[in-house]
TrEMBL record, chain A:
<keyword id="KW-0812">Transmembrane</keyword>
<keyword id="KW-1003">Cell membrane</keyword>
<feature type="transmembrane region" description="Helical">
    <location>
        <begin position="227"/>
        <end position="248"/>
    </location>
</feature>
<keyword id="KW-0472">Membrane</keyword>
<keyword id="KW-1133">Transmembrane helix</keyword>
<feature type="transmembrane region" description="Helical">
    <location>
        <begin position="125"/>
        <end position="149"/>
    </location>
</feature>
<protein>
    <submittedName>
        <fullName>ABC transporter permease</fullName>
    </submittedName>
</protein>
<feature type="transmembrane region" description="Helical">
    <location>
        <begin position="169"/>
        <end position="195"/>
    </location>
</feature>
<keyword id="KW-0813">Transport</keyword>
Automatic annotation (TrEMBL), chain B:
<dbReference type="InterPro" id="IPR008995">
    <property type="entry name" value="Mo/tungstate-bd_C_term_dom"/>
</dbReference>
<dbReference type="InterPro" id="IPR003439">
    <property type="entry name" value="ABC_transporter-like_ATP-bd"/>
</dbReference>
<dbReference type="Pfam" id="PF00005">
    <property type="entry name" value="ABC_tran"/>
</dbReference>
<feature type="domain" description="ABC transporter">
    <location>
        <begin position="18"/>
        <end position="252"/>
    </location>
</feature>
<dbReference type="GO" id="GO:0005524">
    <property type="term" value="F:ATP binding"/>
</dbReference>
<dbReference type="InterPro" id="IPR017871">
    <property type="entry name" value="ABC_transporter-like_CS"/>
</dbReference>
<keyword id="KW-0472">Membrane</keyword>
<protein>
    <recommendedName>
        <fullName>Spermidine/putrescine import ATP-binding protein PotA</fullName>
        <ecNumber>7.6.2.11</ecNumber>
    </recommendedName>
</protein>
<keyword id="KW-0067">ATP-binding</keyword>
Length: 308, 372
């Protein structure tokens, strides 16, 4: 009798503790639900509806938004023809984001290595320089980039003054401009995680590599890169994924000619007034990101197994 | 053990594996310049176990890193088998290093670590595999081939580092205080293992240490260094019994150093008048000054208490007796105020060993030496 009442009291206490824990969790949980899961749910629902004439949605179930992504529906006989217009925007976005990732890796690795090999008391100064751009708004920095690379901008005027070129090189409003802009915007996101792993690198291992007949390039490939792998992967994710959804950079530097996914989605909710299609495109982008992360998780998992 | 070392002795040639000529290394410039090496000349013979011995900051590690290729000399040249290698990068020198910290690659298995050098040399995979297995057997780590290096004990890591450096069959193996991180018992074992490994492989070993005992037990020859200079090079016996430099005498083993002045010299012997007025004869090495102030060095085991009726070379007052069983160490104060320690073997019967007793000291003929 006493035993059962004791265990009942124990159960009661445990239930109270559980309630307290969930109570403490609730505010954060509500915020996550309200600002992330709920809008995502709305997006999913909207993507399966029909567009309203002046924006908004009409509550009729339809998969048209997804069909529209790959096919064009003839307005007279409803036949579907393959239309790669949107797909090509996706492919360009993937290409530009991937290019920016490789570009920032190539530029960022020597930078991070340089900082990591500086005396400890000087490193903070160099890191400060890397984070300096964050002190200014991205929009303003992108405008500055626009001024630098436009036909009458700093780069072209300088090159012409030096008589290296006769007429300006048109960079602005091309994929190249967006590519340069993305590299500029995302370089710190590559340098910082790379620095974090290179800083932990035991440089005696680099010496051991040299000692064992590995040239500079082989030491980089067989010793430094494998040990800096967590930083390389983190940097690549931090550049590729936001790069895929970049909005300001292609908007200003691509000038509507070099669209990326972000701009296309914005247009659907704005001038095109096709909310379901915008929602569908946003979800396709999200699926893409999730697939990339799954591939990463799978490869990282496999890596751990072979080493463990 | 002695047999193997004798065997290497007989096959050892006098050809130099490593020759350094007028090596100078200066870090920094101007007033803050640190002279790590000041005009070092050295010849390390083929197949020898050569030790660079000295306190920290004496330049021994700088010299080792220069042979490895990690440091460029400020001036001077380094030859390997008669070929100049002074400016060659480390990966082009047939020289491998066992690092003090081992520096094993944490992202590779034991076998991958050992095979790294051969792989970088572009040897075919089956060739590498065979050599790795041989090295694993040599250091008795066959069972650990697929382990990660952080799963090994300090002694095992030490063996992997050794196997990794030996696998590419270098002409010279450099060892930078490789035993410093091991506990005493393991260190003693590894000393013997290293010595027999050197005899087995016939590779020239250049070993850096600050531990004089380690240097004496393992080396064929020792170079004693201090503040960027080599003071004396010789076999352990030479260095111990015939030190030419006060620092060498003091650094290796216990020794009594007595100040005095040369009163007369001839035939390799000098009469040195000590501060308390007594004159003792001490051996004078070739090329040493025949006059002027001099110091006399006497090992504790080269002196004993003078017997009844025997003439004492020195006289002192007994201050302390430290009993070690097989022998006792007697601490005496000489008339000059200098301390003198002697090692008295066997029992102490028949002597007055009360504190303050006056005792005569007899020095074995020829065991007192004049120092530079």
């Amino acid at each position: 009798m006493t035993e059962t009442s004791l265990s009942a009291a124990h159960r009661e206490a445990q239930a109270r503790a559980t309630r307290t824990r969930y109570g403490l969790l609730a505010p954060a949980l509500i915020i996550i639900l309200a600002i992330s899961i709920l809008p995502l749910g709305i997006t999913v629902v909207y993507s399966f509806l029909e567009p309203g004439t002046y924006g908004g949605v009409v509550w009729n179930f339809s998969t048209d938004a997804y069909v529209q992504f790959l096919f064009e529906r003839d307005i007279f006989d409803d036949t579907l023809t393959f239309d790669p217009a949107y797909l090509s925007i996706f492919m360009r976005s993937i290409g530009l984001a991937f290019g920016a990732m490789i570009g920032t890796l190539i530029l960022g690795f020597p930078t991070a290595y340089f900082i990591a090999t500086k005396p400890r008391n000087q490193r903070n100064f160099w890191l400060f320089l890397i984070t300096l751009p964050f002190w200014t708004n991205l929009l303003i920095r992108t405008y500055a980039m626009l001024l630098i690379i436009r036909d009458e901008g700093f780069v072209n005027i300088s090159l012409m003054k030096l008589r290296l070129i006769d007429s300006p090189i048109s960079i602005l409003y091309t994929d190249t401009a967006v590519f340069i802009g993305l590299i500029y915007s995302y370089l710190p996101f590559m340098v910082l995680p790379l620095y974090a792993s290179l800083e932990k690198l035991d440089f005696r291992l680099v010496e051991a590599g040299y000692d064992l007949y590995a040239s500079r390039w082989k030491v980089l490939r067989h010793v430094i890169a494998p040990l800096a792998k967590p930083g390389i992967i983190a940097g690549c994710i931090l550049v590729f994924i936001p790069g895929l959804g970049a909005y300001i950079t292609p908007e200003l530097l691509g000038g509507g000619k070099s669209l990326m996914i972000g701009n296309m989605i914005a247009i659907q909710f704005g001038s095109s007034r096709n909310w379901p299609f915008g929602s569908a495109a946003a979800l396709i982008l999200m699926m893409l990101v999730i697939i990339v992360l799954l591939i990463y998780a799978a490869s990282a998992g496999r890596g751990r197994r072979t080493h463990g | 053990m002695p047999e193997t070392s004798n065997a290497t002795q007989s096959t050892r040639s006098d050809r130099a594996a490593i020759s350094a000529r007028s090596l100078v290394k200066t870090f920094g410039a101007g007033e803050n310049a640190v002279h790590a090496l000041k005009n070092v000349d050295i010849d390390i013979r083929e197949n020898e176990f050569f030790t660079l011995l000295g306190p920290s900051g004496c330049g021994k590690t700088t010299l080792l890193r220069m042979i490895a290729g990690f440091e460029l000399p400020t001036s001077g040249t380094i030859l390997l088998d008669g070929q100049e290698i002074t400016a060659l990068p480390p990966y082009k020198r047939p020289v491998n290093t066992v690092f003090q910290s081992y520096a094993l690659f944490p992202h590779m298995t034991v076998a991958e670590n050992i095979g790294f050098g051969l792989k970088m040399l572009g040897r075919p995979a089956d060739n590498v595999q065979g050599r790795v297995e041989k090295m694993l057997a040599l250091v008795q780590l066959e069972a650990m081939a697929n382990r990660r290096t952080d799963q090994l004990s300090g002694g095992q890591q030490q063996r992997v580092a050794l196997a990794r450096a030996l696998a590419p069959e270098p002409k010279v193996l450099l060892l930078d205080e490789p035993l410093a991180a091991l506990d005493l018992k393991l260190r003693k074992n590894m000393q013997l293992e290293l010595k027999s490994l050197q005899a087995e492989t016939g590779i020239t070993f250049v070993f850096v240490t600050h531990d004089q005992e380690e240097a004496l037990t393992m080396s064929d020859r020792i170079a004693v260094m201090r503040s960027g200079e080599i003071l004396q090079i010789g076999a352990p016996k030479d260095i111990y019994e015939r030190p030419t430099h006060r620092f060498v005498a003091d650094f290796i083993g216990d020794i009594n150093i007595l100040e005095g002045e040369i009163a007369g010299a001839g035939g390799g012997t000098a009469q040195v008048r000590l501060k308390d007025g007594t004159t003792i004869s001490a051996r004078l090495a070739e090329g040493m000054a025949q006059t002027g102030p001099a110091a006399v060095a006497i090992r504790p085991e080269a002196a004993r208490i003078a017997g009844q009726g025997e003439t004492a070379d020195l006289t002192g007052t007994l201050e302390n007796v430290v009993y070690f069983g097989a022998a006792s160490y007697l601490h005496l104060r000489l008339n000059s105020g200098e301390e003198f320690v002697l090692r008295q073997p066997g029992g102490l019967d028949g002597h007055d060993l009360s504190r303050g007793a006056r005792l005569g000291i007899a020095i074995q003929p020829g065991r007192a030496r004049v120092l530079e």
